[in-house]
DNA sequence: AACTGATGCAACCGCATGATA
DNA sequence: ATATCATGCGGTTGCATCAGT
């Protein structure tokens, strides 16, 4: 009765995205904001299905995304959270706002799983710290993690964090720079996707740029609201400052996406937190301890979570 | 230089879930 | 209450690149 899934329709292109397609998609999102993916192929003429567009945006084109070069600290967080949460990559990614779930999943499958496997094999005999094993990773692996026991310690619902507070709120300035980047790069350089980086947050001046999600229809408005409320799931009064990314590297600030709805959601979240502020979980303690030592772009937990 | 296997990552697929009519 | 649509998530695949021979 219904039409076939969009990805099965004739003429839908598959495979790697071209720089030209990226530009079209970014231009569209710059104008309309992320969301309403169904309409993206129709309105842009892209021969891609909506899912593909969404994935491309989330995993690669979205501003603030960091690719590769996982720091030892990020590595430690991933190992720890994977032990706690299992393969809930989106939940894990919510602690590392600059990383996508796909990236984390790939990194786990290609690097960390092997490291841990190797550790488990080695630990039967003697464990040798390889040069590429981070202190955090080693510490974690050495101490071991009784996952079940740790799960028992989880006194608050993890669903609190299950909304990926990803950086949907695309700064259109960043996207403008992204476009500039594409234009500057030769097609070949653009195709070399790993080189892409957004830099220099200070010299942009797109006249019509807005730093908030532009909702042009009730539906998009709803979408934007969902996104903002999703952010608010982990937000309270200190989040503005605590969740700001390194501005100098061109990352967007969480503070910029705040709107009336988020303020309201913040208030609700605050109220909720006041009503049922759970004791600090083992996970939060661990993350906070780590945060004291190093802050390289992961989601910092507000200090007053500890009180 | 050519071949081959290993590796890493982008993208796809199928299913689940929530929203809406 | 139900069907349909839109989106999100996790597992998997395919291809480009790298490293070793």
Briefly say what this structure is.
The chain is built from 14 helices and no strands.
Q: What number is the mean pLDDT?
A: 56
The number of strands is 0
Order of helices and strands: HHHHHHHHHHHHHH
Structural class, by secondary structure, is: mainly alpha
Low-confidence stretches: 1-6, 126-132, 144-280, 295-307
Largest sheet: none
Query: Percent helix among the residues?
Result: 40-55%
Separation, N- and C-terminal Cα atoms: 56 Å
- Give the number of helices: 14
Q: Classify the beta-strand content into a percent band.
A: under 5%
Silhouette: elongated
Tally of separate domains = 2
Based on CA atoms alone, the radius of gyration comes out at 21 Å
Give an overview in words:
- The protein is built from 14 helices and no strands.
- With 307 residues, the protein is mostly helical.
- 33% of the residues are buried.
- It has helices at 19-32, 39-44, 50-61, 72-85, 89-93, 101-124, 135-143, 147-153, 172-184, 187-191, 218-232, 239-242, 260-276, 282-293.
- The chain folds into two domains: 12-62 and 168-271, no CATH class; 72-158, no CATH class.
- α1 runs antiparallel to α9 (172-184), α4 (72-85) runs parallel beside α7 and α11 (218-232) runs parallel beside α13.
- Residues 1-6, 126-132, 144-280 and 295-307 have low confidence and may be disordered.
- Helix content is 51%, strand content 0%.
- One of its GO terms (molecular function) is DNA binding.
- InterPro entries: Homeodomain-like_sf, Myb_dom, Myb_TF_plants, SANT/Myb.
- It is found in: Nucleus.
- Residues 9-61, 62-112 form the Myb-like domain.
- Residues 9-65, 66-116 form the HTH myb-type domain.
């Amino acid at each position: 009765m219904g039409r076939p899934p969009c990805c099965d329709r004739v003429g839908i292109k598959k495979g790697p995205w071209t720089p030209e397609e990226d530009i079209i998609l970014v231009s569209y999102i710059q104008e309309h904001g992320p969301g309403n993916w169904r309409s993206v192929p129709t309105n842009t003429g892209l021969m891609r299905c909506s899912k593909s567009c969404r994935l491309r945006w989330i995993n690669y084109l979205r501003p603030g995304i960091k690719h590769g070069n996982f720091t030892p600290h990020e590595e430690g967080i991933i190992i720890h959270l994977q032990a706690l949460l299992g393969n809930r990559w989106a939940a894990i990614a919510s602690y590392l706002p600059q990383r996508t779930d796909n990236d984390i999943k790939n990194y786990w499958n290609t690097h960390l799983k092997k490291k841990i496997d190797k550790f488990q094999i080695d630990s039967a005999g003697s464990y040798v710290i390889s040069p590429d094993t981070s202190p955090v990773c080693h510490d974690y692996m050495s101490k071991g993690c009784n996952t079940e026991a740790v799960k028992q310690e989880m006194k608050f619902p993890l669903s609190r964090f299950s909304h990926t507070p990803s950086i949907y709120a695309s700064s259109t300035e960043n996207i403008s720079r992204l476009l500039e980047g594409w234009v500057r790069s030769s097609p070949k350089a653009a195709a070399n996707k790993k080189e892409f980086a957004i830099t220099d947050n200070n010299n942009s001046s797109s006249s019509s740029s807005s730093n908030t999600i532009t909702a042009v229809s009730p539906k998009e408005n709803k979408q934007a609201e969902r996104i903002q409320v999703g952010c608010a799931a982990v937000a309270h009064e200190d989040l503005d400052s605590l969740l700001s990314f390194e501005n100098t590297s061109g990352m967007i600030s969480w503070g910029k996406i705040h709107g009336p709805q988020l303020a309201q959601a913040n208030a609700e979240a605050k109220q909720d937190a006041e009503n049922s502020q759970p004791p600090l979980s083992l996970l939060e303690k661990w993350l906070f301890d780590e945060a004291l030592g190093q802050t390289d772009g992961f989601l910092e937990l507000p200090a007053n979570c500890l009180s």
